[in-house]
Design brief:
- The complex is a heterodimer of chains A (about 150) and B (about 325).
- Chain A has three helices and seven strands; from the N terminus they run H-E-E-H-E-E-E-H-E-E.
- Chain A is an alpha+beta fold.
- Chain B folds into two domains: about 130 residues, Immunoglobulin-like, CATH 2.60.40; about 140 residues, Immunoglobulin-like (Sandwich).
- In chain B, the strands form three sheets. In chain B, strands 1, 2, 5, 6, 10, 12, 13, 14, 16 and 18 form a ten-stranded mixed beta sheet that branches. In chain B, strands 4-3-7-8-17 form a five-stranded antiparallel beta sheet, with no helix packed on it.
- Chain B is elongated and about 105 Å long.
- Classes of the chains: A alpha+beta (about 150), B mainly beta (about 325).
- The interface between A and B is medium-sized, with 19 and 20 residues.
Chain lengths: ~150, ~325
């Protein structure tokens, strides 16, 4: 009778642990390893560079797109682009292991000729680009920042 | 004689002149007044009607056609106040009683209009005066300010990417005197069939957000599946048609605190039905404001254009692939 009761108890615990395990979120958010162990995470820490004579509120992120090689980047043949925001600094992509390139773009919304002086081609709303190479490894989060001159 | 004089004086001393209006006249119904000041319009409207008593045996059936029409003539005006001083008074004139749609398909619900531009964060007082019955319905509102869209942000050379795997997040900051918000995306596209080319648009509405605290960041996700489903459902399949994406617009609408409160306190059942909330004295209805901010000239990225062109469920809509524009 006792043995029988233990058996039922262990069965119950086993059942509960299966239920609990199924509730664990394995979706692979930016701070966790990806759910698929064959993929890795690229986290782009898109800091806005300090630019002399321009306040931070006048510099904006406008583009962050991924390509498989430099050539595809120059031809704007991207396979993914994040939606840019002035509020978000960190952008994540789940990728298969390999070498990737990403193009980051910033613009300037200052009045007058401030944007031209700051090196934005065409002045206001001109875009400065940066291309960065990254290597993604399976199960690893790789952090990278675009390097603006 | 002296006695009569004293009695007469006492009698006359109790009789006082009165020029007050008895605002609580019992008519057996209440006036229903709606006025939503539109900060983006040069013309403001007031709609006047009345409550009705529904027949308990006919619950759920539309009321008798004229039971919502208020017969008494009325004079309507709105006062603009600033720093506790009356700045301006706007008189309303009757502009129509065209038939409305929906549960109350009634001719004759009066609409009054006045041409003025309502200002944000300004106090307005509404008066609807019924001279025949000496009744005044009144209300006060402090208008909302224009909402500020953070994402999408106006003017910036950004493109929006929505694919089956990637949604979009709209963000905005709440503003003073608003109680409810709604974002609306409009996709604008060209249709070419034979010789003719016409512009079309399709909207998708984000859910309402009730929030009456200013300077808070609101985020709303556009689920990519819902976005693609909306295109499938909203754009007809027409053989031989050629379509081309032109752009996207985002409209952010802020409604006054009173609209938010009325939605919070009850589900509005329809015009002229009693709801729990009113900000009018001596009547029911709503006096509030609405303001829109438009973010125009947005574009989709090539990834989105290609996704719309090649998606198995969307390819029958015949959108051009990116880079194939003439």
């Amino acid at each position: 009778m006792n043995n029988n009761g233990n058996w039922i108890k262990w069965l119950f615990f086993g059942f509960c642990s299966i239920i609990m395990a199924s509730c664990v979120d394995n979706n692979g958010g930016p701070d966790k390893p990806p759910a698929d162990p064959a993929t890795g995470i690229l986290e782009v820490d898109f800091k806005l560079p300090p630019i002399e004579f321009l306040s931070d509120s006048r510099i904006h992120r406008v583009q962050l797109c991924l390509g498989y090689n430099q050539d595809s980047i120059y031809r704007s043949l991207f396979f993914d682009c994040a939606n840019m925001s002035d509020i978000l600094q960190s952008y994540s992509f789940i990728l298969a292991p390999g070498i990737y390139y990403y193009m980051a773009g910033i613009t300037c919304s200052a009045q007058g000729d401030s944007c031209s002086w700051a090196g934005f081609p065409g002045g206001r709303y001109g875009i400065r680009y940066s291309i960065t190479r990254v290597e993604i490894k399976a199960g690893v989060k790789t952090t990278s920042s675009p390097g603006f001159q | 004689m002296k006695k009569f004089l004293v009695v007469g004086l006492i009698y006359f001393s109790f009789i006082r002149c009165s020029n007050e209006i008895d605002i609580h006249v019992n008519l057996g119904y209440l006036p229903v007044v709606y006025c939503i000041l539109n900060l983006n319009s040069e013309t403001q409207h007031v709609r006047v009607s009345r409550t009705y008593r529904s027949d308990s045996e006919n619950t759920g059936k539309p009321p008798v056609s004229d039971s919502l029409i208020i017969r008494e003539p009325c004079e309507i005006y709105i006062e603009k106040w600033s720093d506790e001083k009356l700045v301006e008074t706007y008189l309303f004139t009757k502009t129509g009683n065209s038939k409305d749609s929906g549960f109350f398909p009634v001719q004759g619900q009066e609409t009054y209009s006045s041409n003025f531009h309502a200002q944000p964060l300004t106090r307005y007082l509404l008066y609807v005066y019924f001279p025949d019955i000496n009744k005044v319905v009144s209300g006060v509102t402090l208008t909302t300010s224009y909402p500020v869209s953070e994402d999408p942000k106006p003017d910036l050379p950004r493109s929006i990417t929505i694919t089956r795997e990637r949604g979009y997040t709209a963000r905005w900051f709440t503003v003073r005197q608003a109680g409810i918000y709604q974002g609306v995306f409009s996709l604008i596209y060209l249709e070419s069939l034979g010789e003719g080319t016409t512009f079309h648009s399709i909207q998708w509405f984000l859910p309402n957000v009730l929030n009456d605290r200013p300077d808070e960041l609101i985020t709303q996700e556009i689920n990519p599946k819902r976005f693609f489903d909306r295109l499938v459902q909203g754009i007809p399949v027409i053989p031989d048609i050629q379509r081309e994406l032109v752009g996207v617009e985002f409209t952010l609408i802020a409604g006054g605190e009173e609209i938010g409160l009325s939605l919070r306190t009850s589900d509005i059942q329809g015009f002229s039905t009693s709801s729990d909330y009113t900000n009018l004295d001596n009547g029911i209805g709503l006096f509030s404001s609405i303001a829109r901010t438009h973010v125009r000239n947005l574009v989709f990225s090539n990834l989105t254009e290609d996704a719309i062109c090649t998606d198995p469920e969307l390819k029958f809509l015949n959108f051009k692939k990116s880079g194939s524009h003439e």
